[in-house]
Amino acid sequence: MAVGETPVTLIGSVYTELESRRVGGHHVVSFWLRSKERRFDKDRDAWVDGRHFTVRVQCWRRLAMAVLTSLRKGDPIIVHGRLYTRSYDEGGETRAIPEVEASAVGPNLMLCVAPVQRARPGPGSKVGGDSWQDPAASLREPRAEAAEPASVG
User: Fold this and answer.
1) What is the structure's pLDDT at 122?
2) How far is CA 71 from CA 42, 105, 107, 134, 143, in A?
3) Inter-residue contact 51 to 75 (CB < 8 Å)
4) DSSP readout, the chain?
5) Please, are residues 102 and 12 in contact by the beta-carbon 8 Å criterion?
6) Which of 147, 144, 11, 143 has its CA nearest to residue 77?
7) CA-wise closest residue to 11 among 67, 47, 45, 52
8) How would you label 73-93 residue by residue, b for 16+ Cβ within 10 Å and e otherwise?
9) Which segments of the chain have a pLDDT < 50?
10) How far apart are the C-alpha atoms of 46 and 37, rounded to whole Å?
11) I want to staple 34 with a disulfide (CB 3.0 to 4.6 A). Which of 15, 20, 105, 146 is the partner?
12) Which residues, listed in sequence order, are joined to residue 102 by a DSSP beta bridge?
């Protein structure tokens, strides 16, 4: 990690559809993550929505392909990565949005059930290379739906 980086871990949901593209020969998947606060209001005797935070998440290379294969809009997730702001010009004004370059993304198992399938390189493929999985094949295969968790007790 470089001096001055801001590492963060965020808990929220995939807020938008996943956007997939190639940059310089590498896969990149982007989406917006939204984290919404829920708190108990004693006056109303009910749970209410509180503040929210929205951030754009960028996933590169192997992580991008795993995210594209595994997640979709609405899924509860945990993201770890580097937080920074991206500046852009809009109508003569400079604006900035928060972004996270993700180093890890996973389902939030407090809110869902997800089977683990370890990615193993096939014969002749490099470990850690972009060829660990055929992206077209992963898009053809339907994502397995998780069963309801069994009650404990």
Assistant:
1) 56
2) 36, 10, 8, 17, 9
3) no
4) --TT-EEEEEEEEE-S--EEEEETTEEEEEEEEEEEEEEEETTTTEEEEEEEEEEEEEEEHHHHHHHHHH--TT-EEEEEEEEEEEEEEETTEEEEEEEEEEEEEEE-TTT-----------TTPPTTSGGGS-HHHHHHSPPPPPPPPPPP-
5) no
6) 11
7) 52
8) eebbbbbebbeeeeeeeeeee
9) 127-132, 135-144, 146-147, 150, 152-153
10) 14
11) 15
12) 81
Q: What type of residue sits at position 14?
A: V
- Token output for 41: 């209001």
Measured CA to CA, the distance from residue 128 to residue 125 in angstroms comes to 9
DSSP letters, 67-101, are HHHH--TT-EEEEEEEEEEEEEEETTEEEEEEEEE
